[in-house]
Amino acid sequence: MRVQLGNPAAKAAYRDENGELHHRAVDGARVTTVVIPDSYTLVDAVSAVLAQDGAWNHHTQGDNPGDVTPDWVESDNEALGTLLASHFGCPAGRPADWDGEE
Fold it and tell me: How open is the CA angle 50-13-7, to the nearest 5 degrees?
């Protein structure tokens, strides 16, 4: 399964000289892509994206937790895309005029 989220507040991970993981803001809107094994159940797939240690939080909160909502959600699994869009309260599907980097 694959999920893409329009990320208005992307973060990039890096390790400092001591090997400690940190995050820094990335300029501009980005697409966060999450590839989930097909063996995952729908519940496991949702958790892989939404859990505190899940992909969305890792790519939007990093060192500074906050409440970031994607601009849109798109998935090759209709049920997963619909669930995530409903959870976030954002559109399902990438708008044609969305301006962001892959």
Answer: 50
pLDDT in tens, 17-60: 999 988 888 888 889 899 999 999 999 999 999 887 778 877 77
Exposure string over 46-76, b if 16+ CB within 10 A, otherwise e: bebbeeeeebbbbbbbbeeeeebebbbbbbe
Radius of gyration of the chain (CA): 14
pTM: 0.80
What is the number of other CB atoms lying within 10 angstroms of the CB of residue 94?
Answer: 16
Cβ atoms of 70 and 90 closer than 8 Å: yes
- Residue pair 100/29 in contact (Cβ under 8 Å)? The answer is yes
Q: Locate the domains of the chain by residue range.
A: 2-88
> Which stretch of DSSP H or E encloses residue 50?
helix 42-50
The two three-digit tokens of residue 43, written as one number = 């519940």
30 strand-pairing partners? 7, 101
